[in-house]
């Protein structure tokens, strides 16, 4: 049974099965309501074929982009309106009967059938999934992908690579979110994530060692400076000390990196999630004290001033760990600021579109045309199907963008994105700190994949954002 936490790397398929002669059909699909890492309801789907049962669970975000596909929540009093029983019902009563008997290896065909025919709702950015819910469709799409891998007697990452036409899978650089702020923590930090990337590691296993040791050194640094109560963690496992200075967060991390002895092997990244503290189009400022209802006017700054803040961070770290990645530096509709900033620093710093692009091919196309960013954050639940996610990645790669596969702040023990990152040669993955089991589940799956591959494994390392170099890696 392909259910977590112990999904087999090699799907359990009878020896007599043949990819060329046997079509594996869907026997049944059942959805249920479970809980994510924040204690909120989410959708889980079991898809059954004659070969076994394949399970997937859907994550959800706290800082969500305005243009994401529409997840379905029940509203009302139960679970503070966050129940998903209507999405579950849509799977069980609409999607499941329509898919029974279909070939599980036909991922694109089935995804499009769900999105365009069973749901069929659209907005200006494409198929919005308003009728059935993106969380309903995605749960089935993920479970289907696992079943397809089993039918082909392949590891999930290899099946995903085949679906994407990718001959050069690789192990990604982990981007560990070790200080949490913004909407992911109850502290005063406006910026949401402060990350480390062990680009100097020689393997994913070594990258995990580096990440773990820096993380524990950071705990010592924070405890020594602010006391034990400052070592509480946020939604994604990073520490959440009650500081307001974003620059101070960077200082803490650099001290921890130095204490761990990895200054030359680790680089820094940030997810600003600036849409969360944008004051709106009329005022057009960014409130760096947005969690305070009585924030001083001096904390509300223009996009130009915010760019100066980023440039100050980059200059400050230029001779030490170096900032190599900044995600969502401006509001999702502040296109002019994105274009200006990417044009100025994009050669040396990866500018990642998350709320800007929401893994949506139409938004990605616009960002490419305007040169608004140079990397895509890949979140499957932003768009709602595996096929559309692959389309967005393919488009971004053709533009020379880096790719960072990502979790959501509301996660489950599902490890799908680990295989997704390898199969698509994402080069990078962010799935939290090396803390909290729903985060470590993904990292541990990557360790298993690397172990399975042995000397054939390739770690992205310094090439994490270089699509051309990643595309030349030796094939498995």
UniProtKB/TrEMBL annotation:
Pathway: Carbohydrate degradation; glycolysis; pyruvate from D-glyceraldehyde 3-phosphate: step 4/5. Substrate binds at residues 184, 193, 327, 354, 406-409, 430. The keyword Magnesium applies. The active site is at residues 236, 379. Mg(2+) binds at residues 271, 327, 354. GO terms for biological process: glycolytic process. GO terms for cellular component: phosphopyruvate hydratase complex. The keyword Membrane does not apply. Residues 26-160 form the Enolase N-terminal domain. Mg(2+) is required for catalysis and for stabilizing the dimer. Its main location: cytoplasm. GO terms for molecular function: magnesium ion binding; phosphopyruvate hydratase activity. It is found in: Cytoplasm. Residues 168-467 form the Enolase C-terminal TIM barrel domain. Its EC number is 4.2.1.11. SUPFAM superfamilies: Enolase C-terminal domain-like, Enolase N-terminal domain-like. It holds the Pfam family Enolase_C. Keywords: Glycolysis, Lyase, Magnesium, Metal-binding. Its cofactor is Mg(2+). InterPro entries: Enolase (IPR000941), Enolase-like_C_sf (IPR036849), Enolase-like_N (IPR029017), Enolase_C (IPR020810), Enolase_CS (IPR020809), Enolase_N (IPR020811). Belongs to the enolase family. This is phosphopyruvate hydratase.
